[in-house]
């Protein structure tokens, strides 16, 4: 295919002209499909798609991925125009390497043909379904993990309309699979939820009960579908025109679906796959019988610190995570958050030091060529806060620690959602609970104690034990007072130097 400006576009026909080191390890048209993946975003393409390509190349098997875009058509259209090929540029501080990935055997768009996705989940060739749909798409209460069956989910479960929500698609798909007795399946969440497999299992159970699906189909699902927990990790910023330009230079053809990512990548997966799986361990994944400690380590250390940096950095007017980390005192503040709060809040996996892991995380955040925007991490805070920061506080308080640094991060979120950076610039509030936050703030004065009180009342974010803890409330209020009076940059400088 040739674009308007005459530059050739990536596609099967372009593979032989790619530099050898950039060619895919497998070809989309030569692998059978065994996986359906929901969520075609940058993270999936730079993480599971890469692991799976290496696993197929090393271990074989019909494990091509049918990538499903739930809603938007952008990536879907671009991938389809390129025979499902796309490149990942790995950006080190001094070197970069671009390689085309060939593990997506097909791409589909769920919103335009949901029935086709339901049918795919009932197809015996498919033995694994993976998900990167972001926290909010699970429609679970972030604190309790209970299914929040809003109108759309209810309509998916109670009527015959083609499903429009992720819970609806999954449940309709599993029911169709049960009816077809199409063989065992694994539903593998790759989102940053706590106990993501257990939560997905709970979601399916609650959805089946809500829709009144009991008896044989529910029993079939119970006996034939597994929900392993997994920990996923790679920093993958949203693609920019620069990302596409870098890929085009390296490949010699245009790649409209190009993404860039950091060199680091990790995947820890509980090994419960009754229908089989790709040889992911041959691509470096850790297969285990309990991913819980890895998950906590990553959510609290990497994601918790990422969120702290995002809110403090955005308040101080910093556009990227690396710029936020360069604020005077920021690194010192975060080292204290890691050593005094996070490391004291849980037991890490055997042989891992939380402080050492945290040092690596800070080095990754400092990578100057990874332009990860503070506003990107800051979005959907209500869905992220519990597992990233609030569980740290709760566990510390149970052990009688004072959670000084984690409460600073919560205070920074509270100032961020008030919508104004320290220099008066407006801040975006992208959050499924944005209305709830706005209403809570509209009914109160802007005094820090009143703001803290109003926001702590959002019970699907703040667990009751935390709300009832006067010392935690006092610490958040004291930090919010500092942030409001002096701004994030000065607060962090005083705290961390
Ligand atoms: C980030 C994550 O945007 C965010 O909220 O904290 O996407 C983070 O980059 C990944 O979890 C890294 O594995």
Structure description:
- InterPro entries: 6-PGluconate_DH-like_C_sf (IPR008927), 6PGD_dom2 (IPR013328), Mannitol_DH (IPR000669), Mannitol_DH/Oxidoreductase (IPR050988), Mannitol_DH_C (IPR013118), Mannitol_DH_CS (IPR023027), Mannitol_DH_N (IPR013131), NAD(P)-bd_dom_sf (IPR036291).
- With 497 residues, the protein is of the alpha/beta class.
- The chain has 21 helices and 12 strands.
- β3 (86-91) and β4 form a beta hairpin.
- α10 (292-315) runs antiparallel to α12.
- It binds D-mannonic acid (CS2).
- D-mannonic acid (CS2) binds at residues 192, 233-235, 302-303, 306, 376-377.
Which descriptors would you attach to this protein?
binds D-mannonic acid, 46% helix, 6-stranded parallel sheet, alpha/beta, 3-stranded mixed sheet, 497 residues, 21 helices, single chain
């Amino acid at each position: 295919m040739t674009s308007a400006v005459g530059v050739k576009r990536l596609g099967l026909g372009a593979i032989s002209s790619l530099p050898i080191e950039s060619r895919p390890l497998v070809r989309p048209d030569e692998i059978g499909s065994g996986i359906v993946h929901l969520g075609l975003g940058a993270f999936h393409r730079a993480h599971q798609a890469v692991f799976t390509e290496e696993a197929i190349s090393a271990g074989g098997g019909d494990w091509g991925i049918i990538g499903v875009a739930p809603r938007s058509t952008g990536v879907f259209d671009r991938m389809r125009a390129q025979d499902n090929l796309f490149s990942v540029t790995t950006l080190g501080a001094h070197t970069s390497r671009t390689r085309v990935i060939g593990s997506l055997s097909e791409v589909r768009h769920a919103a335009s043909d949901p029935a086709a996705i339901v049918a795919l989940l009932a197809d015996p060739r498919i033995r694994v379904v993976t998900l990167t749909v972001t926290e909010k798409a699970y429609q679970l209460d972030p604190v309790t993990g209970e299914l929040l069956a809003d109108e759309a989910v209810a309509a998916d479960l109670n009527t015959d309309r083609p499903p429009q929500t992720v819970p609806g698609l999954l449940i309709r798909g599993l029911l169709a699979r049960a009816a077809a007795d199409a063989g065992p399946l694994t539903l593998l969440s790759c989102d940053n939820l706590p106990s993501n497999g257990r939560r997905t299992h709970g979601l399916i159970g609650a959805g089946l009960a809500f829709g009144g699906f009991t008896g044989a189909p529910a029993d079939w699902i119970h006996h034939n579908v597994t929900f392993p927990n997994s920990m996923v990790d790679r920093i993958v910023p949203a693609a920019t025109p620069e990302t596409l330009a870098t890929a085009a230079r390296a490949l010699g053809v245009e790649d409209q679906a190009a993404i860039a990512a950091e060199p680091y990548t990790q995947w820890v997966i509980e090994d419960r796959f009754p229908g089989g799986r790709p040889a992911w361990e041959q691509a470096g994944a850790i297969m285990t019988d309990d991913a819980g400690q890895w998950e906590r380590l990553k959510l609290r250390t990497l994601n918790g610190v990422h969120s702290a940096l995002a809110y403090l950095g955005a308040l101080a007017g910093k556009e990227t995570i690396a710029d936020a980390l360069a604020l005077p005192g920021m690194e010192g503040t975060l080292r204290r958050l890691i050593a005094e709060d996070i490391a004291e809040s849980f037991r890490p996996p055997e042989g891992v030091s939380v402080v050492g892991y945290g040092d690596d995380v800070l080095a990754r955040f400092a990578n100057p060529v990874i332009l990860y925007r503070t506003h990107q991490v800051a979005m959907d805070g209500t869905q992220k806060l519990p597992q990233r920061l609030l569980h740290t506080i709760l566990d510390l308080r149970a052990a009688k620690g004072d959670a000084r640094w984690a409460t600073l991060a919560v205070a920074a979120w509270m100032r961020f959602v008030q919508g104004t950076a320290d220099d008066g610039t407006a801040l975006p509030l992208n959050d499924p609970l944005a209305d709830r936050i706005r209403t809570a703030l509209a009914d109160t004065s802007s005094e820090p104690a009143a703001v803290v009180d109003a926001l702590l009342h959002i019970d699907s974010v703040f667990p009751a034990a935390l709300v009832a803890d006067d010392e935690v409330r006092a610490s958040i209020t004291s930090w919010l007072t500092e942030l409001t009076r002096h701004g994030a940059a000065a607060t962090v400088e005083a705290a961390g130097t």
